[in-house]
Amino acid sequence: MLEKIKKENDIKKIKKEELPLLALEIRRFLLEKLSQTGGHLASNLGVVELTMAMHRTFSLPEDKIIWDVGHQSYTHKILTGRKDGFDQLRKYGGMSGFPKRKESDCDAFDTGHSSTSISAGLGYVYARDLKQEKYHVISVFGDGSLTGGMAYEALNNAASLRTNFIMVLNDNHMSISENVGGMSKYLAKLRTADIYTGLKKQVVRTLHKVPVVGKPMIRNIRKTKSSIKQLLVPGMFFEDMGITYLGPVAGHDIEMLCEAFREAAKVEGPVLLHVLTKKGKGYPPAEQYPDRFHGIGPFQVSTGLSRDKKEKETYTDVFGKTLTKLSKEDERIVAITAAMAGGTGLEPFQKQFPNRCFDVGIAEGHGVTFAAGLAAGGLRPVFAVYSSFLQRGYDQIIHDVALQKLPVVFAIDRAGIVGSDGETHQGIFDLSYLGSIPNMTILAPKSGRELSDMLEYAMKLDGPSAIRYPRGTAYEMPEEDCQEIRYGKSEIIAWESQIAIISYGHLFEEAVTVRRLLKEKGYSCTLVNGRFAKPLDTDMLEEVCKEHRLVVSMEENVQRGGFGESIIAYYAGRGKAVRVLPLALPDDYVEHGSIGVLRKEMGLDAQTMADRIETAYQEQEKL
Ligand SMILES: Cc1ncc(C[n+]2csc(CCOP(=O)(O)OP(=O)(O)O)c2C)c(N)n1
Ligand SMILES: CC(=O)[C@@H](O)[C@H](O)COP(=O)(O)O
Ligand SMILES: [Mg+2]
């Protein structure tokens, strides 16, 4: 069936009775491919029929499907001619794990971060109407996405529409882990409503029996605003806003889904189609542990076990362990996560201190202000958050935390290149967006051990601070004698002459190799662990420029507004003609691929950096 799809490139040509077989083949295909490459398995297994039904009902690329987050778009990719791309899924130069307009004209909007699909879809609707075009717009979002504020802003905005806009709520009762909050509770109630009719079955059955007026009454109940409707029609939250609610619909029944989509397409106005699916559907290990199979590396299909042996401690593990330890000693410490307790290493803390751990949902902006409130109330909040997701909380950091100098610690995981998730997830802007905020202290450890020390140190600061650390194994420095952390002071690892390398954060591991490579070529090379990007260690900078011909900064952040540029600005501000070579990321987005490959592509691997330094030094010598 998959071959037929590939040849015909149109699911509409598949016979109705062949659709369940196609769904089965898609699931087998996803399992086979993802067990080799890794990827977002559970969410994709859950939307196979939903995607098939959309593709059968609508016509792409004319109609626009907008996937929220986009991690569930794999069946859509298969059905739009990209089946062969799965061998290179999320690999450098290969197919992205998210929708990309540049990849296909059937990808209507690029996504990666949660809760954007309704806003983008609404934009499309208004563009369509103003240009007097005719197509359908369908935004597909999960129950997890409905914990994010943007979704409500968009629903509120969409409610006044007079033309068709289909919003599909793919409700699998899960975010990455268990979904949280009041909306999740409300959806759970709706789930118990009778499937699809939208009206209680018994009422409908009775009304159907009433001659002549029965059927019109059913239609009228849908249209009325009366309180009786509340008893009969689920989804009043949406209905009362002015959004037609259809559902709940059985999300693995293709025919029913197609029928529901046809109905939804007829509504003149915004319509929310509530679809019930099972995360991990069809693969027992993923059905049982949807969180574990949300995003995975290569695994064995027969057992569900990972193919990669995890032996070494990650920075995330170090953070989780240290936080738990510190929290035993200080009752004021509380932790916040925006639906990422697993990914940020908060689970041990959450287990040990359930009352002191807050999952706010996919709501980073709210999470920041909530942390500010906790701090104002006398607690010591730690917001554990991925670098790219914290972009959502920029105003809140300035307005609610830093302006009041509140002691919130931002434990910024996935800082730097994260790898296969690509552009939307690389944590390469945090130094730039945090560096411009007054009162903020910014730290980054060179090793796992130093992360632990920095967290302990940051808990004692009387203002906001951020500690950035990357995805992956924590560096263990041989014979590390972590010097005591002092405010705004770097750590001198080796002091020589000619070239001074000031490394910031986890690139230190590469810096050690760079120094070795340069020394092998006969250069004399100082190595400094920067520690603080804000405030800068200006005493160190003064000493460094006295005794070196070339100062090199290293960081895994875009150069604009980063560590290196602060050093350049410092020297320039004092009228010092110091040659600084900033080794950082270009003013661009970094696509998907393994971290090692991407670092090399970006010129931040040890060999390329050593070569660049040597060239710069020789140029400097010629002057
Ligand atoms: C702003 C932002 N924060 C966090 C994430 C990480 N994240 C990706 S998927 C997901 C859960 C989404 O749940 P839901 O929308 O219900 O989709 P499901 O995975 O259940 O299919 C989270 C928290 C993200 N992509 N964007
Ligand atoms: C889709 C999404 O945003 C998350 O699932 C993300 O892919 C998690 O990344 P990590 O694998 O680094 O936890
Ligand atoms: Mg969900």
From TrEMBL:
One Pfam family per UniProt: Transket_pyr
Cofactor(s) this protein requires: thiamine diphosphate; Mg(2+)
SUPFAM superfamilies with a match to the protein in the record: Thiamin diphosphate-binding fold (THDP-binding), TK C-terminal domain-like
Listed GO MF terms: 1-deoxy-D-xylulose-5-phosphate synthase activity; magnesium ion binding; thiamine pyrophosphate binding
Top-level taxonomic group: Bacteria
Binding site residues for Mg(2+): D143, N172
HAMAP family xref list: DXP_synth
UniProt-recorded name of the protein: 1-deoxy-D-xylulose-5-phosphate synthase
Lineage: Bacteria, Bacillati, Bacillota, Clostridia, Lachnospirales
Gene name, Swiss-Prot/TrEMBL: dxs
